[in-house]
Amino acid sequence: MQDVMVIEDPAAATASLDPLRARLLRELAAPSSAAALAAKVGLPRQKVNYHLRSLEEHGLVALLEERRKGNVMERVLQATAASYVISPAALAVVEPDPEHLRDRFSAYWLLALAARTVRDVGRLLAGAVAARKELATFAADGEITFASAASRAAFATEFGAEVARLAAKYHEPSAPGARRHRLVVVLHPALKPDAAAAGSDPDQEIQP
After folding, report:
1. CB of 122 within 8 A of CB of 85?
2. Which of 33, 126, 134, 174 is most deeply packed, by most CB within 10 A?
3. Are 2 and 127 in contact (CB under 8 A)?
4. CA dist list (Å): 202 to 106, 146, 190, 191, 206
5. Mean pLDDT for each consecutive 10-residue tract of the chain (208 residues)?
6. CA separation for the pair 53, 58 (Å, rounded)
7. For residues 160 and 82, what is the distance between their CA atoms, to the nearest angstrom?
């Protein structure tokens, strides 16, 4: 089982978004059978089996074993990942294009960059898993409390200059065996805990 699987196929994304199938995926973090799941979700085994077949068809669950239980052959399945992320590639026609939104102070550009990151890392991860190799990545996450909008702007300017300096120092496109990497740095207001649960923060500043 993977820790996270990125879903690119539109049909698989649709299957994962169905409330019942999402519940089955959560229950299948541990191996289980249709009969056991039916008892948990309060539905007939035949109906649960129908949904499991769809999830299996889209690669969201996998068969672990078949075992005989009385006169019935019981299929034991497990989710292929502990959690799932839907890639913007599942909506390729309306996927945001960072090149058309380029503006370092634009929240829309930030979202387009984040969407591209999910898409690209998802594809790289799928390849790494198939090849049974580790994917070389790095990420940092933290919070900063600024005294004012001016201090935030000063930080952004100084940080941007330092990132550019480091990038110039280590950028060697002509080196033998060189491999391109993408660097994305974002800064945005932090949601308050109660607002994060509600999906909005009316008190957050909206200016960069």
Report:
1. yes
2. 33
3. no
4. 19, 18, 12, 9, 10
5. 90 92 94 93 92 94 88 89 91 84 87 92 90 90 93 94 94 92 91 64 47
6. 9
7. 36
